[in-house]
Design a protein that fits this description.
CATH superfamily of the largest domain: P-loop containing nucleotide triphosphate hydrolases
Radius of gyration: 20 Å
Distance between the termini: 14 Å
Number of domains: 3
CATH topology of the largest domain: Rossmann fold
Pfam families: IPPT
Cofactor: Mg(2+)
Keywords: ATP-binding, Magnesium, Nucleotide-binding, Transferase, tRNA processing
Number of strands: 6
Strand content: 5-15%
GO molecular function: ATP binding; tRNA dimethylallyltransferase activity
CATH architecture of the largest domain: 3-Layer(aba) Sandwich
Strand order of the largest sheet: 3-2-4-1-5-6
Catalytic activity: adenosine(37) in tRNA + dimethylallyl diphosphate = N(6)-dimethylallyladenosine(37) in tRNA + diphosphate
Length: 307
Amino acid sequence: MNVNAAALPVVAVVGPTGSGKSELALQLAERFDGEAINADSMQFYRGMNIGTAKLPLEQRRGIPHHLMDFLTVREDTTVATFQDLARAAIADVRSRGKLPILVGGSGLYVRAALDVLEFPGTDPAVRSALEAELERTGLAMLAARLATVDPISAARISDAKRVVRALEVHELTGRPFSSFMPEREYFSPAVQIGLNGDRAELHQRLASRVHGMVAEGLLNEVQALIPQGLREGRTAHKALGYQQFLQVLDGDSSVAAASEETIVATRQFARRQLTWFRADPRVQWLDWAQTDLGTAAAQLVVRTIQG
């Protein structure tokens, strides 16, 4: 492309799991000489391949993929750390005249990479105390406390990890966590392309995907990760499919039951992803089933480049 590398936008391919983001990112990379930057937080982990639908190397069509496989299942990262890593990767891709293509459905990670966003610090002691309280009293008690100090965040979030984080931020800074999520403003030129489509079709896609993962050997993958620290890590063992199939290995569930629980949980996750991305008016939506999807997405990229 005959364009100043510094002016190349970040192209973010977003939407629910199972909507075809990885394939569209590959098509755009081929059209625009781009490189992919992963924004799926579960694909950070080495060895978590089948259950995260990570594209195998041989299916990446020679296109570099950044920010995959840089953590062990014992390790954890923060959104702030990801922000630094993602922006370094974006700068690196641009420095070589390539188009950076951010791809993934982890909404906060996408926003961290794209937007002017400040992340408050963390304190292990405060975090541990809140996690201990969560274990002792349950999520409802912490959620109720969050509602008193930060009703905006309380209305937006429901999972335990983020409730703990919001309370930690309030305790450390005296400010509500919601105050760190300002107006939507891109850090540098960007375009977000969202994929969506028929809900019934998505449900069928997700069911087929989970059954395919099981057939590929998800249970064996989970078992192989246990000696590497899957149970000890703070985040990895909670990933969709992994927590359900750990129960199979523990004798507390069957493959059939774990598969069905994973399908239900994945559908719920997809719904939350859609809610997140629909709240951003800058996302330009395309139907994943349209025959000219690659061309339509390419036109959005060209329009952004041309201003």
